[in-house]
Amino acid sequence: MIAAVSTLVRQAHRDDDLDALHARVTTLDTELDARVAELAAVRSGLETFRIRYRQEVGLLHDELDRLELAIAEAEIGELSKKLDEQDIAEPSSAPPPSPDPQPRFTTDAVRKLFRDVAKTIHPDLAHDEDARGRRHALMVEANRAYALGDEAQLRAILDQWERSPESVRGTDPEAMRLRLSRRVAQVEEQLDLLAADLAELKATPLWELKAMVDEAAIRGKDIISDMVRRLKRDIMAATNRLDAMVGGS
């Protein structure tokens, strides 16, 4: 009788563990969806701002740079022509451009490792579309690593798969618990990567400029319009100066 009670207690504890893991996975999956959406929104907003800045400000910067270069060339007279002649007379000593990186030599060990990876993660072994998608993504990485002869990357892909929930077989409680535990670790790792990506985006000069523009807009100030006005004024002044130099020569 005591043994039967102990078995029931252990079974109840296992069920509680599974329920807690299921709840944790559900919470993490919800958070993951939110973080993915947040990162996508930040990237989209940053790209929209980049396009606006390029169209409204960047093109004016290019025009001003062109004018300032023309003014500099006018001031130095024939220097550019002399430099061109010197370049013709004297061969350039500039180093040749470095060639594109070539694929590494593919060894027998790499070929065998690639076969092992392919047999393990091939999409045809998937039981549902979600698993097929994950396997396909890993297979793409494996093909790229094989083409480069990158044995370390192939081993990393295989290790990533072996630590994944999908690699656990069986429907017994222990297999279910292991799959859920691995899914928790997997999502937590993905959340860390997303947080790092978001922090990297927000550390860029473009993001800092966007944040400054957005903050000013809340106060009713349009920084982009102010930049445009200043650039147009500088362009007009540079144009007048260049016309006077060319006309007076």
Q: What's the helix and strand layout?
A:
Blueprint: H1 2-76, H2 79-89, H3 108-121, H4 129-147, H5 151-162, H6 173-202, H7 205-218, H8 223-248
How would you describe this protein?
With 249 residues, this protein is mainly alpha-helical. 81% of the residues lie in helices and 0% in strands. The protein is built from eight helices and no strands. Helix 1 packs parallel to helix 6, helix 3 packs parallel to helix 5 and helix 4 packs antiparallel against helix 5. The longest helix is centred in the first third of the chain and has 75 residues.
Quick summary of this structure?
The chain has 249 residues and is mainly α.
Q: How much helical structure, as a percent, in the residues?
A: over 70%
Shape field: elongated
- Discrete helix count: 8
Structural Rg: 31 Å
**Based on DSSP secondary structure assignment, what is the total number of beta strands?**
0
**Low-pLDDT segments, ≥5 res:** none
Kindly name the structural category. mainly alpha
Beta content comes to under 5%
Q: Topology as H/E string?
A: HHHHHHHH
The termini sit apart by 112 Å
Q: Please tell me the overall pLDDT.
A: 83
Largest sheet: none
